Automatic annotation (TrEMBL):
Native source organism of the sequence: Lutibacter maritimus
InterPro entries recorded: DUF4268
Superkingdom to which the source organism belongs: Bacteria
Residue span, DUF4268 domain: 10-137
Protein name per Swiss-Prot or TrEMBL: DUF4268 domain-containing protein
Lineage: Bacteria, Pseudomonadati, Bacteroidota, Flavobacteriia, Flavobacteriales
């Protein structure tokens, strides 16, 4: 068991080490669509690469999620075959969002440094595929709310 301080230090070390291992600028929040973001998630149980649609405007969320759903077969066939679409994803904060994500299938615990390298490789590849998908279909996705 780790104290809060030890846990915080390990999380900081995890992300710093990831940034040094894969030094590049990720798309993440720079999609040019408010509340439509790519994220890395790592905790004591899992590692995920996500596309979160989380506006407080439900109509906007539905339109964006529906637009990505129209691309689901392309996303699966050409980019991320293990992608999961969750239209009712409950965050730890209690907020419900639409989350489209891939999960690292190896053993992972952010408190176990021996599991980090596999997660780093997964993060790099999965986010790269998500970014490629977004780059290829950005204009189509934006049509949901900008036309």
């Amino acid at each position: 068991m780790f104290s809060k301080e030890e846990s915080a230090q390990l999380r900081k070390e995890f992300w710093t080490s990831f940034g040094k291992s894969f030094p590049r600028k990720w798309l993440l929040y720079n999609t040019k669509i408010k509340d439509f973001n790519f994220k890395f998630v790592a905790d004591k149980k899992q590692a995920l690469v996500c596309l979160d649609i989380e506006s407080y405007d439900r109509t906007k969320n539905e339109l964006l999620y529906g637009q990505v759903l129209e691309l689901k077969s392309i996303l699966i066939e050409d980019y991320l075959p293990d992608i999961i679409f969750d239209d009712i994803y409950l965050l730890d904060t209690g907020k419900i969002i639409h989350r489209i994500y891939v999960k690292y299938n190896g053993k992972f615990n952010i408190h176990n440094k021996n599991t980090w390298q596999g997660a780093y490789l997964f993060f790099n590849e999965a986010m790269h595929q998500f970014e490629e998908f977004y780059e290829d279909y950005e204009d189509f996705i934006k049509q949901a709310i900008y036309l």
